[in-house]
Model the fold of this input.
Amino acid sequence: MSEHVVSRKTYFIIFGALMVLTAATVLVATFDLGPLNVIVALSIAVLKATLVVLYFMHVRYSSKLTWVFVGAGFFWLAILVAFTFSDFATRSWTMTAK
Amino acid sequence: MEQQREAGTLGMWAFLITEIMFFGGLFLAYILYRTKFPDSFAAASSHLDWKLGAFNTAVLIVSSLTMALAVYYSQTGDRAKLIGFLILTIVLGVTFLVVKAIEYHDKYVKHHVPGPFFGFKWEEHAGDPKQVEMFYYIYFAMTGVHALHMVIGIGIMIVLVLMARRGRFTPEYHSPVEISGLYWHFVDIVWIFLFPLLYLLGAHIHSH
Done:
């Protein structure tokens, strides 16, 4: 398996997509959509990050072992957030206290 | 050579995973406090200049493109273009930091920096000054640590330019460029999350 050289065209397409998504996230943020605001903002951010990881960081063309490393990293982060938040969200007495 | 390159990439990812955990903790702090104090956080966020934030986001995305192209030209062995795009990446990184410095100065003048001199003019908003101060603690901690990563990244780029000038990189060996690229893109990803969470949270509140 020799090194995969990603074409310049791919880089420019990803760059264009990232710029469009940035404009989209700014546009959406100017409207008050209530709880939808953060959902849209985070979805766009996750999409942008995924594009950067897969193409700019070449993970899409990397070995299975690299995939496992990267996947494990983000999975561990998901555990950190999910478990802490599930604890936090179910402590109603700290949520209501001002 | 193939195995060496693979090992280098994996090693860098192992480091980046520790970085994900490091920033992840800060993001977690943000999420919890934001959930606890939604109104104060939105009010505090509306006092950040989202236009400068958006500009910096664009600057970083362009810098990621120039970095990716630098990696491309290190793979094809075009030394002049490799150096050119590395320098362009450095220029964009410095641009980002200059804008960040302007923003920090603005916060300093307005007494939005947490501490004994913190004074948030918040007549027009609901919320609690202590909660607003918490937002700014998180804002300065996260953007500060991010800016530090940028400074380190620019330092790495300068070393790469010097190495490239000495002809240290060939299509067969350019792992330092590739691996530094991973770092640079990672710092970009952190900002991709910081920008909407910090700047756009209160963008629908027109405070200016």
About this structure: Chain A has a mean pLDDT of 89.
